[in-house]
Write the structure tokens for this entry.
Amino acid sequence: MLGRVERYLLEKIKNDGAIHITLIDPEKVTAQDASRIAENSKNSGTAAIMIGGSTFVSQNHLDDVVKAIKAVVDIPTILFPNNVTGITSYADAIWFMSLLNSVDPYFLIGAQILGAPLVKKFGLEPISMGYVIVGEGGTAGVVGKAISVPYNKPELAAAHALAGQYLGMRFIYLEGGSGAANPVPPEMIRAVKHVLDVPLIVGGGIRTKEQALAAASAGADIIVTGNVTESSDAKQRISDIICAIKVTKA
Ligand code: 1GP
């Protein structure tokens, strides 16, 4: 049975075409910053808040960040963990994810085995997701020991994504790496979308409405932005991104 957050995401994709999710990296912000970013993003029309980063964060700080977000917005909070330490009981859901192109079994299934009992204990809604690192891949690629799929090999990205879907994953995430110089190219998104039946998430290096529009037009169902949300003109930029992707697919 699908959980509440997953149903909400699917419904919103169906109604809006492509949707936007705001990523907050708890390592980069105070709890106060996090609540301000979440509130601004919500007012700009973001569908949900993802919380996670690629490196270290203390458990207490993660708890405080999620609590601060939940105090100001009612849209779903979804954990985006890089490890077992990325789990807190205060969120609504968790991307229960496997890094499909990691060479380290820890990121394929090891961390998931350690984390699963906590997810159960905390009553978090697990949303199964296949994570594929592409292009420069950023910190996530290094930490996750991924063999990144080059941007000029869209068919390889499609094979990874399809394997994830056949293994039962209900979302696929193409990750260009936070702060990537170039976002995932439309040709790669198109090739992946062509073979997939499950929703496609795309993120990494998306900074402008033009880039978001290009990703959505190529088939991204969910656009994730992180860095943009921390900029001084974040509210306007996120509104522009959301407006652009709605127009494309609605
Ligand atoms: C990282 O895809 C996300 O996991 C977001 O990347 O910070 O570049 O928006 P940015």
Observations:
- The CA atoms of residues 41 and 208 lie 15 Å apart.
- Strands lie at 19-24, 48-51, 77-79, 93-99, 125-133, 171-175, 200-203, 222-225.
- The radius of gyration is 16 Å.
- Residues 23, 175, 178-180, 203-206, 224-228 surround SN-glycerol-1-phosphate (CB under 6 Å).
